Amino acid sequence: MLRPLLAALLLATVSLPAAAQASQAGRYFEDALKRFEAKDLDGATIQLKNALQQDRNHLPAQLLMGKVALANSDPQRAEVALGEALRLGANRNEVVVPLAQAMLQLGRHQLMLEDPRTQPTGLSDANQGRLLLVRAAAHTDLGEDALAISSIEKARALLGPTVEGWLAEAGLRMRQRQYDQAERAVERALALAPNDLDALHQKAALAHVQGQFDTALALYERVLKLAPQQLEARVARAGLLLDLQRFEGLQTEVNALQQAFPKDPRVAYLRAQMADQRGERAESLAALRSVTELVDPVPFDVIRFRPQVLMLNGLAHFALGELAKAKPYLEGLHRQNPRSPTVKLQAQILFEEGQVENGIVLLEQYLRLQPQDSQALALLASGHTAQGRHAKAISLMEEALRTRENDELRGVLGLSLLRTGQARQAQGVLEATVKRNPRQVQAGISLAMLYLRTQQYAQAEKLVQGLLGPRSLRPTHLHLLGMARAGKGDAKGASEAFTEALKLDPSLVPVQISLARLEAQQGQLQPALQRLRNLHERDNKNVDVMLELAGIQLRANNASEAERWLERAVAAAPQKEWRPDVALVELRLQRGLRDEALTAANALMSKAPEELAALVVLAKVQMARQELATARSVLVRAARRAGFDANALAEIGGLQLQVGDAEGARYSLEKALQTQPGHVLAQGLQASALLRLGRLPEAQRLAEKVLAAAPKAATSHLLMADLAMAERQPDRALVHLRRAHEVQPSTATAIRLLDLLSSKDAAAATRFAEDWLRRQPSDAHMLRALASLHARRQQFEAARPVFESLLRLRPQDVAAHNDLANVLLKLGKLDAAAQTAERARRLAPQSVEVIDTQAWIHFHRNETEQALTLLRDARLRAPDNSEIRYHLAAVLAKRGQKAEARQELDAALQAPGSLESAKEAQALRAALN
Fold it and tell me: Which interval of the chain is the signal sequence (predicted)?
């Protein structure tokens, strides 16, 4: 009896320091927050460092550190901290604007404009507007004036009239020397805030550049009356007085500036100019040296958009006789775009190094001299294809083929068409190429693989056997033959082909993988796993082997082991290999690990920001996290990248329907049907899109066409059920749902039927689900649906055992653990609820729903410190979640922090329809009043 007790005591002893650290981190954070609000930036920084020393992953501390660092003119620390906050799961609305400001201060303008993290899509209107103003500043510095003014106008449309919006335009107009328009913009800003320091300073600067020196001086004086220590106004006034040769009192002012701002190069340059006026050459040179010592260590990127600093350092180096050092600063001052590279390497090497654009330039120069070089032209087309410019590659090939017939060029054209998803056109070109010249082996193999991809297995088998000829069969051809036979269901013939290929070359890993896959399909899991493990031992970097191991582990219901193999594959994969990343995201979504899936998706996007597969899985993650606006934007990009790939467009169209973008889905599916008019899935989805757009007659015609083409497909009847529901005929919809379930009984059809039944007769729905589960006791989806049905009906005692059955089947299901924890909380089983929530948290430590549940259980156990720490974290991850904000308000109110509690309650009650606890929140708000 003592041993279990001893183990429990040891576990408690081990866990106490971590809990104590978390608690201490929370206390440091609360103190830092108070200091920040009191503008004690240094004190806040110290306390935040203390908090992060206790808990590096303390999300609120990382976010506040970013804001404090930005306010304290430390953009580098701000960028790091804000990036960490995003990594830890902070909602973009909380982070994006300060992150963009930090990147702008660091001179990372183009990176900020292109970075997926700092895009306006998916933000609230207010944050979109603020971010657009930051982006306008970046466009202005880059000389992209049209984009800058467009961003400013969009920001004003979102924010309404603001000082910041008008001043952004004033700065741009000044740069364009459109002084009248700049003045009008400044006056609009001052009409909103007559004593705004930035607006007054802008007006002074405008007078200054137009030669209205007395007006400018008066305005600088007005700014300094309101804010005597305003650096910009003091430096500008001193510079103007120097230009006007008004030296009285100027030396005193420059000395004071030097004492107050010793690290500002402008002040050092003013000192040099004053010394030069007095004829003190040595002192002037020393001051100029101070300028260079201050600016030179700063990375050029940080200052390349600060013309004043570039000019000062260029002039300082020039005056010191350091012409080579002056040159980059003076060039940077006048360059509109400093990012134009010039390289003299051969195209092939450039392609290998990833510098494809430089290789394209080199090839274009060469082809102007040697236009008949087919190989160079084919290489140029492959370069454009590598850059995603498939249309350009196709255009090059078609243009060349108009002047001469060339099988190599025609083969490249077929491959280019294939890469754009134009499978039908590609098939025609490749078939013609192979027919004209059977020796075009690459075209023949590409055609065989196209047949396999489009499930034309008989054609693939015939091509490999006949066109390439049995005598010329090499191991790779036998591999294709085996895959064709496997696709036809000829397992014996496939095995013979794979075995024959391995006799010719036992080292062929792809053939070994295909053989393992065939074994697994026949239920021989252990031989398949052993074959793959042997391959992995020989080459532990082979991504294909690890992907197949993951697939077979999934087939064996070992999701954790499958995930480990995928993580290894991601780590081993080369730069442009993202299949493991996609598979890892998909698996984590299947397991309900939404935050972990987002981490994997973001890592993939950093490697392949415009890759179709990356965009699609990112959208799926955002959908799982209910970030539907962001998902819609990503799917639009995916549809553009899909070209005319009918299958890809059908998938994207289906996802667009799920996120509520019916018009986007209609457009994607229309493109799919232009390429492949008989694509049944695309037709069905298009009917659904038309249905949602209210175009019922068109939807009806298309749905009937789908039903006629596939009368025994469940999807056809599901579509008819949707039409019936749109026409408010639930009984007719029920008939179609029952028919769908009859022709193709599946979990999907059963759950659709359950959903409609539950709205008409909850008891009948329950009986239907229980009957299905008697026959399919391992159907996790139906268990979840039944448990949720009980929970919605407040039948928590009935819901509990169903959730427990689901967890016995899927012990790593985060959502099921979380739902069960909430059910136990409703039943008043606080200890059991806490234990269940802790299990969910161990599985998904960054899940906002899990964090909220755990915090709410702490609150009901009167553990308000732990609840506050967790809810501050959850609130930053999901600021639009009204339930979390209500929970945070309840905790703050209980701790006596009533002002902040009122703010959170007001935010929660702004969207009462989405607040399950609206009555409780309103009662709390009344009590706080």
Answer: 1-20
The span from the CA of 82 to the CA of 89, in Å, is 11
SS3 573: coil
- Greatest mean pLDDT among 85-89, 288-292, 363-367, 865-869 lies in 865-869
What the block records as the tokens of 760 is 């008409």
As given in the structure block, the two tokens for residue 255 are 């000395």
| Closest to 613 measured CA to CA, from 647, 644, 591, 582 | 582
Amino acid 737: pLDDT = 86
Asked if the domains at 16-256 and 347-447 fall in one CATH topology, the answer is yes
- C-alpha span between 703 and 687 (Å, rounded): 6
What CATH code would you report for 16-256?
A: 1.25.40.10
Task: Compute the C-alpha angle 615/650/746, nearest 5°.
Answer: 105
By 3-state DSSP, what share of the chain in percent is helix, strand and coil, each rounded to 5?
80, 0, 20
What gap in Å lies between CA 686 and CA 692, rounded to an integer?
Answer: 10
Q: Which of 505, 513, 453, 454 is nearest to 477 (CA)?
A: 505
- Amino acid in the structure at residue 63: L
Highest mean pLDDT pick, 5-9, 265-269, 828-832 = 828-832
Instruction: Please state, rounded to an integer, the average pLDDT across all residues of the chain.
Output: 82
How many CB atoms are located within 10 Å of the residue 842 CB? 12
The two three-digit tokens of residue 671, written as one number: 């493109």
Sorted by sequence, the CB contacts under 8 Å of residue 789 that are 6+ apart come out as 754, 758, 762, 765, 766, 769
Distance (Å, whole) CA 483 – CA 768: 42
CB half-sphere exposure, 243, CA atoms < 13 A? 14
Helices (H), 573-645: 579-590, 594-607, 612-624, 628-641
| Residue ranges per structural domain of the chain | 16-256, 257-334, 347-447, 493-499+506-731
What is the predicted pLDDT for the residue at 774? 92
Contacts (Cβ under 8 Å, ≥6 apart) of 828: none
Q: Regarding the domain with residue range 347-447, which homologous superfamily does it belong to in the CATH classification?
A: Tetratricopeptide repeat domain (1.25.40.10)
Question: Terminal CA-to-CA distance of the chain, rounded, Å?
Answer: 55
Q: Global pTM?
A: 0.56
Does the pLDDT value for residue 560 go beyond 70?
Answer: yes
pLDDT of residue 488: 80
Q: How large is the angle between the packed helices 281-295 and 265-277, nearest 10 degrees?
A: 170
Confidence of residue 14 (pLDDT cuts 50, 70, 90): very low
Q: Dihedrals φ, ψ of 164, to 5°?
A: -60, -40
Question: CA-CA distance, 566 to 293, in Å (whole number)?
Answer: 50
What does CATH list as the number for 493-499+506-731?
1.25.40.10
Integer-rounded Cα radius of gyration of the chain:
33
Chain centre to alpha carbon of residue 357: 26
Judge whether 430 and 450 are in contact, CB under 8 Å: yes
pLDDT digits (tens, 9 = 90+) for 684-695: 888 888 888 888
Which structure tokens are listed for 165? 């919006």
Neighbours of 489 (CB within 10 A): 9
- Annotate 151-171 with three-state secondary structure: HHHHHHHHHCCCHHHHHHHHH
For the four alpha carbons of 488, 492, 497 and 501, in that order, the dihedral sign comes to positive
Cα 5 to Cα 25: distance, rounded to the nearest angstrom: 30
Place of tokens 């920040």: 36
Instruction: Give dist(CA 350, CA 358) in Å, integer.
Output: 7
pLDDT interval class at 407 (50, 70, 90) = low
220-254, pLDDT tens digit by residue? Answer: 888 888 888 888 888 888 888 887 888 777 888 88
Among the listed residues 750, 741, 825, the one whose alpha carbon sits nearest the alpha carbon of residue 789: 750
Residue with tokens 């039927």: 753
- Token pair 């108009």 is found at 402
